[in-house]
Structures are given as structure tokens and as C-alpha cells.
Amino acid sequence: MEAVAPTTHIEHGPSLRQRLAARGFDAVTLLVVPAAIFSLLLFVYPFAFGFILSFEPKNGGWLANYQRFFSDSYLYDTIGNTLLLSIPVTLLNLLLAVPISFRVRLMRHQRLLTTILVLPITLGTVLVAEGLLNYLGPQGWFNRTLVTLGIIDQPLRLVHNYWGVFASLVITGFPFTFLLTLSYVTGIDPALEQAAATLGASAWQRFLHIYLPLLMPGFAITFCLSFVQAFSVFPSAVLLGEPAGTTRVISIAAYQAAFEEYDYSMASAVAMIMGFVQLAIVVLVLASRGLFYRGPASGAKG
Fold this sequence. Notes:
transmembrane, 68% helix, MetI-like fold, MetI-like, 14 helices, cell membrane, MetI-like_sf
């Protein structure tokens, strides 16, 4: 009889694709790669380059740019000037957006009203600034109307000062704040409010004890995004403000260092300081939202 050779079974381990999938690297995850490369090239590399460049001053040691900034009141005062514009504007836009969002969500023509309210965002800051110059200027429609009606004798100074920039930032920033606020307000389950009303809670009590705790995470994010947008003000501060006075914001200081003094190292240092100030405010706001948020609730965003 002939001997029959035993059959050999070769066990293959998991393929490379299976091993990657087990670690979370599947086909869907790989779709993030283009976005990661885009972010690296458009954000991370410029930031890293500017950060390194800020420590290479024309004269002095490697901290000379930062020492110059904080030792010159004409430079470091720009931080306060910018905060005095951006924080009140952001708070006002948020305070306006909340009641309007609550009202709009109950209206029949919500899409039409939303389109009207966000229309200024399509105009751009330069066009809004030019419109305010024609409307609020000494010979603008607003002042001429008040003079004609005998309400005032001399035109009010509403442009080329703090209030001109303030008005421009409110007009251009409100649509963005409103859209974010509306998305959070409409994301809360109406059954929560109806249950509270059934138990006898007033409108103010329903807002204070139901809506506000659920909306605080959304308000925090909305504040941060709106604040960053307002903090980077530049065209409005130049066209409607006093670039050498009360509205000399930090972005103007960076522009002058780069394109008037041709000191790109100093301009990078100013940009880094600008970024760190924004980051500090954002971290502070996001950290403080835990004082108000009471946990997840069904039907709520945030």
C-alpha cells in the first residue's frame, strides 16, 4: 500500500486592510487625509513659520520683538483697543440674536425672515463701511434728517471714531451670530417647554431653567466664533475709525509693521500676540460654560 502524505493546512493571518480596520483606519477614516493635508499646508505651516520668524528680529536678542511690543504703549494699547471693540460687539450681537431667534422660530415665513436678517453678511465689511459713511457722515441722510426736523443744530459725529467701527461690526457680525443661535434654539425639543408650562412655569422661568442651561454650550461656541471674527477687525477700523487713535486695533499694528516698516519679524510677533489673546479668551469662555451647563438633555444640541 502506498503511504498517503498528510494534508498540510496553512493558516493565513488577517490582511493589512483588516489590521488597519481593527485600529480604526478604514476607508472612511482615510477620507480625512486630504483635509488633514489641507489644514497642514494652509494653517499649521504658516503658523509655525510665523512663530519661528517672530523670534528672529532685525535687531536685538531673540525676544526683542516681544520686548518692544510690551514696552511701547503705542503698541500694547492695541490689545485693549481691540478688546474694547470686539467683546461689547459680540455680547450685543448675542443679546440681540437670542430674542430674535426665539421669535423667528415660531413664525410661518421663517426662511424669508432668516434670509432678510442674514443679508448684510453678503455685503462685506468694505461695502458696509462705505454705506455707513454715506448714511452716518456729517452730510449723511441720518444727520440731515435730524437737522431738518430741528432735533439737533449740528451734525452728530458718528463716523471716524469708536462708534462708527462699533456700528459696522454689529451689522456685519449679527447675521453670523444669529444663524448660530437660531440653530441651537430650534434644536431644543419643544416638549420640554410645554411640560414646564403645564406645571405653571412662566415664560421667564422656562427660559431661565430650561432653555438657558441647554443653550449655554451653544452660546459659548457662538460667543467664541463671533468674538474671533470681531477681534480681527481691520477694514472697518481704517475706514470708519481713527487708525492712529481709539480704534488703532492690533491688526493695524501688524499691518504697519509688515507693509510700512517692512519688518516681517515684528509683524509675525504682533500676529502671534493677537492669536494668543484670542486663544486665552476662547479657553476662558469654554472653560466657564461648565458652570451653567447641567448635563445632556434629549432633543438639544450642544
